[in-house]
Amino acid sequence: MNIINIEHIAKIYDVGLEKVHALRDVSLRIDKNEYVAIMGPSGSGKSTLMNMLGCLDTPTSGKYEFNAVNVSDMDDNDLARIRNKEIGFVFQTFNLLPRSDALHNVELPLIYAGMPYSERRERASKALTDVGLADRMHHKPNELSGGQRQRVAVARALVTNPSIILADEPTGNLDSKTGEEIMLLFNEIQEKGNTIILVTHEEYIAEHAARIIRLKDGLVEKDEVVAKRFIPKPKEAGVI
Amino acid sequence: MRYILFELKEGLLIAFRALRTNKVRTSLTMLGIFIGITVVVLMSTAIKGIDNSFQQGISALGSDVLYIDKWAWFSNEDWWKLRNRRSIDMADYEQFKELAKLPIAVAPVINSQQVVKINDRRVEGVFLNGSTADYVKTTNFTFENGRFYNDVESNASRQVAVIGSEISKKLFPRGDALDKVIKIGGSNFKIVGVLAEQGSFILGPWNPDNQVFIPIGTIFKNFIAEHRGTVTLNVRAPNPSMVEETKAEAEGVMRKVRGLKYDEENDFSINQQEGLMANYNSVVGVIQIAGLFITGLSLFVGAIGIMNIMFVSVRERTKEIGIRKAIGARRRTILVQFLLESSAICLLGGIAGLIAAILGSMMLNQYFPTSIQPSAAVIAIGVSAITGILSGFAPAYTASKLDPVDSLRYE
Question: Superfamily assignment of A34-59+75-225 in CATH?
Fold first, then answer.
């Protein structure tokens, strides 16, 4: 079953007198439990596509169906609801609320979902435990390392049980060892049945995915299923 | 509905979290509202206090008393014309008292200002009232000690005096005024009565607390030559609803006493407290409006401060707003969050201001009459909440309209 079905979407930005075609004509389908990497050089339109997929932005033309619901002409409130319930974001710069502790950051999407206090506290602390931060719940982002911050962000993305996880350069601000640890975490999440869409420009990060979509100048240049890189699992996998 | 309540509750928690993390800024912003609410409430308690004490003072004089006088208290008549009226003398009083049927009491009053002293304690410029024993029936006086002078003392023009509570305090700090002999303008007087506190300081020398009462014959004997003064007739109606009839009768009787022909104008005036009230209300009304307007301005300045801070705050937290929107906050949620922040600042500032104003007016009350109205408290809280919502709306709306993509990219 397709979670995402995009048909001929285009996005045109008005920049002064010029029109910038960030996306010209992109069609793609993504199934449940797929692990997709979107690659491309800067200016290829991958960020625009990412915003589109994440329902942060709507296409200028074309159709976007999410779980068989047409979202291309939804209003702001409906998009906010979809983002809240169906999509988990992981950003390059983590985008945590700097003055709130890890637990509150993870709990935030559940607040917007209208979940009562005790239930959401429980779920948020479980999500943090799942990413190995059981002992860091009351630390603020500036008291955590880069890898730990990204784990908080992953926990926040997972806590609502979304249909897809959208990760935008999730290792961009991390050293390679920590980056690899985060990628292992994504592998695990995918193995548990989640759908992951990864935006990156680094080949060795993209190699974690089973399918790589390459963009160039607002068009899909190549969409290929690749052999997943063999990743040796450390013994303590699960709590990395 | 339940969702809205949930949103309000969570919004409040988030707002308080934001206020706590910016303590200095929050408290500085609050200060604006705090000062605004404090001065507005203080002003209104002071105005109300003055008003109350005036009303009280007036009612001590009796609202059902007419004052028949050569002078008009409030009129546009030519001063010379009033001045040239014949004086009202004791003979007029006797006749009036004989002819007027409605009044329950008629008393002639004449004043003089004198120094009152005992040993080395003295009070200057005291309003000395000379009247008959009936005078007390035209007032609502109550007594701390003793009694008013009686008919015998009055008719015999004895050297007896009744003193007001303030005079008593000044001359006899230990409260032992009764039966003492004081000097009024050089003559000895025995105190037969001390008034309980009557009115208010607003009336100044017209406050009975600051006056001394002696028989009218005594005042003529000691201070004013009888043929030179003009007396005022204090005429008390049987009850407040009979004031108009009593006034009509008094006018007729007085014309007869004065021997006026049908085409002659009154050569006397019948004054009422109402004139005093009307005059007072018009003056105080202006003070009230001006005072509240000026203090209201400070509240307005506070509100602008809040709007300013909220705009800065929205800009500074653009990224936060982006994050919140990305993970599912709706426009309304963001709007409510920022509105709650500004209202919370205002409410906290307003409550603190109200407390300060209450304490302040308690302190002021030692020197100045103030009166804290429960309604003032309710209004203060309401006004600060509304200020918060109004001044927070524009910034909050701006925040709610931010584009999530742009604001996530904002550094």
Answer: P-loop containing nucleotide triphosphate hydrolases (3.40.50.300)
